[in-house]
Amino acid sequence: MRMIEVEDLSVKYLDIEALSGVTFAAEAGDYIGIVGPNGSGKTTLIKALLGLVPFTGKVFFNGKAFSEFTHNRHVGYLPQKMSFYDPRFPAVAREIVASGAYCCKKFPKRLFASDHSRAMEAMEMLGIAELAGRPIGKLSGGEQQRVLLARSLVHSPEVLILDEPTAALDPSSRETFYKTVRDLNREKGVTVLLVSHDAATIGEYAGKLLYLDGKVIFYGSFGEFCGSETMTRHFGAGQHIICHRH
């Protein structure tokens, strides 16, 4: 079943076209790595899917038009920059995770015991229950990202959208994070769209690659990416480097 369908999506900032004619579909349970150079429109695409920027074209979620879809209840989102460097930040990890439930509440928004229970379930699922009572500002970058991932999962979304979630992580934490997302996809059936600047690394984990450069240059498996004449013309010798790093 198609979870997401995008047809001829274009985004303009003033007179600059950031994305042009983007068309692709994600099946339920897909894990799609969205890759491309800086300025290629990766984050713009994510913002369009989430309704954060205006666009032309069509977006469907579970067969429903964009305007009819309740994003908050069905989509978990981890933005590009969200970190807590101040050790005095007045919240422990469990409270940060539980705050993910606010997305599904009507005004006045309040958290209940059931929300905190779901927060602990999400942390246990990701193997970080021991961090529950620790101040978020005192956690490492990798620990913070896994807490924020748990936050995006606390309302049991069908789709998980992550925008460069490993950009500030060291190699070991990055690998752990990617494996965690892969396990969520395989074991829980969560449909994943993950933005990355590193086609080689995400190709090891994602089932499909969507390569953008203002428009869709390629969409398919990593194996198809490595055998694509289109990508050979686009990258030249660089394609060989990407495909033989594993």
Task: Describe the secondary-structure layout.
Layout lengths: L1 E12 L2 E12 L3 E5 L6 H8 L6 E6 L2 E2 L5 H4 E4 L14 H6 L14 H13 L15 H13 L5 E5 L7 H18 L2 E5 L3 H5 L4 E5 L3 E5 L1 H6 L1 H7 L2 H6 L3
Parallel strand pairs: 3-8, 3-9, 6-7, 7-8
Antiparallel strand pairs: 1-2, 1-4, 4-5, 9-10
Helix pairs in contact: 4-5, 5-6
Features:
single chain, alpha/beta, six-stranded mixed β-sheet, four-stranded antiparallel β-sheet, 10 helices, 10 strands
Structural summary, described in words:
The chain is an alpha/beta fold and 246 residues long. It has a single domain (2-243), classed as 3-Layer(aba) Sandwich (Rossmann fold), CATH 3.40.50. It is 35% helix and 25% strand. The chain has ten helices and ten strands. The chain has helices at 42-49, 71-74, 93-98, 113-125, 141-153, 171-188, 199-203, 222-227, 229-235, 238-243; strands at 2-13, 16-27, 31-35, 56-61, 64-65, 75-78, 159-163, 191-195, 208-212, 216-220. It has a six-stranded mixed β-sheet, sandwiched between helices. The protein has a four-stranded antiparallel β-sheet with strand order 2-1-4-5, with helices on one face. Strand 4 and strand 5 form a beta hairpin. Helix 5 runs parallel beside helix 6 (171-188). It is globular. The two termini are 31 Å apart. The mean pLDDT is 86.
